[in-house]
Amino acid sequence: MVSETLVLFDRKNLKKITMYFLFNQRLLTIQALFLFHCCCFSQVNNGAFMIGDALPDAPELSARGNFKVGVRTVELIHKSQVDILKSTGGVDPLYDRPLKVEIWYPAIVPDGKKELVEYSATLGLWKDSARPLIPFTFSGRSLRDAAPDVSAGKFPLIIVSHGYPGSRVLLTYLTENLASKGYVVAAIDHTESTESDRAGFQSTLLNRSKDILFVLNQVAEMGRTGSKSFLAGLPDADNTALIGYSMGGYGVLNAAGAGYSPKLEAFFSQLTKGSNAIKTQIAGNETFKATYDSRIKAVVAFAPWGMQVGVWDSAGLKGLKVPVFFVAGSLDDISGYEAGTKAIYKAAVNANRYLLTYENARHNVAPNPPPPESLKPGVAFDEYYHYAEPSWNEYRINNINQHFITAFIGTCLKQKDYGKYLDVPEKSNEKKWIGFKPRTSTGLELIHALPE
What we know:
Strand content: 15-25%
Number of domains: 1
Largest sheet: 11 strands, mixed
Number of strands: 13
Distance between the termini: 79 Å
Radius of gyration: 24 Å
Helix content: 25-40%
CATH superfamily: Alpha/Beta hydrolase fold, catalytic domain
CATH topology: Rossmann fold
CATH architecture: 3-Layer(aba) Sandwich
């Protein structure tokens, strides 16, 4: 009786069972193909999924714009800067500080050419035997040394500052995307702060905002009509936004007017055995007040570092008066959340500001996805978690960032009517957000505060 019942059950449900397995086999095939494409971005392959491409559930404004994208690398020298790594006893020697900058821009792509480029980066840490340097390459959608497209006039300028350590190609999903929408985007390799040259933390503390303002001035000069640079007539440096991640967030806030706290000044002096070189970036300092740059119209700060250790205070953050879009993970264990990014957001009372929160995310709410090299056996776990998030797909985060930063910077620098994408219910789980496909706006929070 039992065996006959099972036979009847199997026959009765054979069609359903067959369809179930066929569906799952098909699903597994799709998943495998997706993973294959995601892991192939290190090869220049016209058909492969690449960093920055839109997933099927990407929000509306994450799509690339109408401009083709060119990219070039320039090397700059910031002369006579404090060589803080050699400072001793309060005496600060000077050096000529080199900076490598990657610049993306609207470009002319000739017939027969494709927007394909190979970027070089490095895993590991310089002079760290536990994390030896591992060079790797990955593909992007821009054309190396393409001719600029000057047919549409000047384009707003965006300057990008990476984390510590990081590199100028840490956020290519975003830099390429913004260039395709009509911006000149300059991303900095901060000397002594990349994987391949990381040195004492005092260099990063001192130089971040200085590097950013220097690059702004240099790109403005390169963009001057009649200059001999490829950028001549292209960037509108009077209409600039800054984007920074982690220590880059620390830097862009200072460059935009938020002064560091006296507590940082004391810590810096202790760290450097007596140097007071950072005093000109402290809130209330007359020299710092004089560095305020009215060309900066907006800031995007991903997980900005420092609030949880006293780098910022309410007095310094009152100096931030341009619109700011903060992005953070609710479980950020590097920059902090409630006592970190969210506290900065609350204290920046003179700024029109937003805070986008990825629920259950930690610190990595900004970078490209983990490169395939980080998945190889024997590679330190930290190489993977330098990029990855435990609760989120990094490709998904990239698309969401593209969407919201397009809306925010487009509103601030181009006066685009993107208000409907920013004026959404605070909790994405409660009601669908405009610009998101059905069932996809989950796990997010967006809050907004006007200047007091």
